[in-house]
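PROTEIN DATA CARD
Card holder: Glycosyltransferase 2-like domain-containing protein
Chain length: 712
Origin: Carpinus fangiana
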Amino acid sequence: MANPNSLPLYERIRRKNAIQRAIDIIILFLLLSLLIYRLLFFNDHGLTWLLAFLCESSFTFTWVLIINAKWNPVEYKSHPDHLLRRAIELPSVDMFVTTADPVLEPPIITINTVLSLLAVDYPPHKLACYVSDDACSLLTFYSLVEASKFAKLWVPFCKKYNIQVRAPFRYFFNDSLLSSDTSWEFRQEWIRIKDEYEQLQQKIQLAAKNSVACDFSGEFAEFANVERENHPSIIKGEAGAMNVLARVSGLMTNAPYMLNVDCDMFVNNPKVVLHAMCLLLDPNSEKEFAFAQFPQVLYDRLKDDPYGNQMMVFFEYMVRGILGIQGVFYNGTGCFHRRKIIYGLSPDNVDSVDEKLAEEILSKFGSSKKLIKSAAHALEGKTNLADNLWDSIEAAHRVTSCEYEYGTSWGTKLGWRYGSMTEDVLTGLSIHRRGWRSVYCTPDPPAFLGCGSGGGSSVMTQQKRWATGLLEIMLSKNCPIFATLFGKLQFRQCLVYLYMFLWGLCSIPELCYATLPAYCIITNSSFLPKVQEPAFYVLVAFFVIYNLYTLSEYLRTGQSIRAWWNNQRMSRIISMNACFFGFLSVMLKLLGISETVFEVTKKDQSSDVANDDNAGRFTFDKSPIFVPGTTILLLHLTALIVIFMKLQPPAHDGHGSGLGEVLCSVWLVLCFWPFLKGLSGKGKHGIPMSTICKSVALALIFLQLCRKTTIH
Ligand SMILES: O=c1ccn([C@@H]2O[C@H](COP(=O)(O)OP(=O)(O)O[C@H]3O[C@H](CO)[C@@H](O)[C@H](O)[C@H]3O)[C@@H](O)[C@H]2O)c(=O)[nH]1
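Structure generated from the sequence above:
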């Protein structure tokens, strides 16, 4: 029999992708051929040809970045059963949950996440759970206190019956679990625990209604006179909260590993900590992997991914490809970090921290002696529980105060990094810059499940925030190019980051390219080769191969043709609306006109999407974010009317618009179909009149421009 210590904790499997590489190269070849053709016939065409050339050059560059990211896909398979057979002591893990708004993130969601974390299959004395609440909500605190009482029933129940789903709202959603082949004892306990959970829910609902009439005594005393957005905690986005949690946990439990999850991401696989430990505890990975990231999987996924936010293809092909370079980026949730790396260690000094280095690192921690002592222990790889919990609580109060970070390196050289809406990606980049790799773990069933943003408006808000945050990093001193030149970020990993960070900027060529067909039809000019020119077939080949190729990716991940189409059109909608606004907000920030703000995504626990007729319908709000899309749609409708009513002016130099331009225009109208429906839709499914008016005004200006440029 094999020695249990020799059984591998994980395997690294290379994926075969010869066909994918070949198609990637063919597409690149077609794009380059088109660019060369445009260069060769530059003199015969005007401005539209030049603009098309510039836009296509940017698309080709993006394609090169995509090929680079997907070139060497790998996957990791972890073996928790091998870990359990090894004669080693499992390390402690501090688990962090962040919440920021009791209205957008109802406390019942947060407590379900906490309960699922407390119930994981891992020695309970090795786990500690910390919750930060940037809203300083009494309701959230009350819910947590009540949940901790319920946990005393819930955790033993889960462990005794080896329950798979350990978030009660999700577990009790399915009555069929109480099937006839379960024991009488189980059924009795099931009914009792469900009853207790329902009582817990009711208490929270009642407290939410009566929140004003609270008794601020005992453990609630500190909440007296606290207002939601005016209280002495740190609001910097999630990074501020994470740094507070890192410091507080350092004083209380100081575990060498830290897990962080968003308040809506509950544990779906009870062995999640064991899976992560397989990847992080192996002696080979000690000097290699900084963090283990789990994918963000949504529960109650809407059929055919109408909002294009399930990102299954992205995780399957892109992320696995990145894993073959320096490793997946940090997603901000579902991630296990090593404390010493968050404190600043590099692969070269992780084994032994000499006195000088320790002194240098510890000098950045601020004035708390207790925190410095705990950090010194963490750097040496020691876990120390607080000797006296009350002393630690007092010290913890100090390190959570807003002023504590002044004059320290928290957020700059230490902990989670500030300076971007996507602090997670920035923090991950700062770790990769030091030469660390990262790993991605995809157990079955998925480790965590979270709720996705639904409707058009919240998807746009979230995507705009991502585009803003990523571009903020690109245009700062944290730019990945510097990280490669002056740090240890690998060149190919730098290209991966460039692909992500330039995402917001890509909205400019995309918007420009989307207006070209309308402009050309209205002015009877052209930007595409004619049917009789060979380059026309290059374009057709590109269009057909690219779409069949992306379609095959959806089919291979078990998704439908409809899901593919929804994602194609959502990519266009997100790029031309959310990303464009992300780009604008970064520009306004650079010009010092306005600051970027973290807009929290609304979390919804409802599980009845299957019966909702409007589930998947695009929603709008008064935000100007929908103006670019509405304008593009109006322009293309106008262009199609112009061509079908034969209203085009005579062509100049025989270069009038042709089949290519008309097909592009039809394609764009199809992409913006939800907007077309929104023009006549009612309520949140209709585009607000103010947005339509602004778009009409912009379209009229554009038509005027077209008229001016056609008067020869
Ligand atoms: O001032 C804040 C703002 C947010 N949060 C928490 O941060 C998490 C993420 O916020 P959310 O609105 O849910 O953002 P998402 O777009 O859903 O989250 C993804 O993208 C964010 C970056 O934009 C990352 O921070 C998240 O971890 C990642 O899951 C939530 O738990 C919030 O409660 C705070 O604690 N304080």
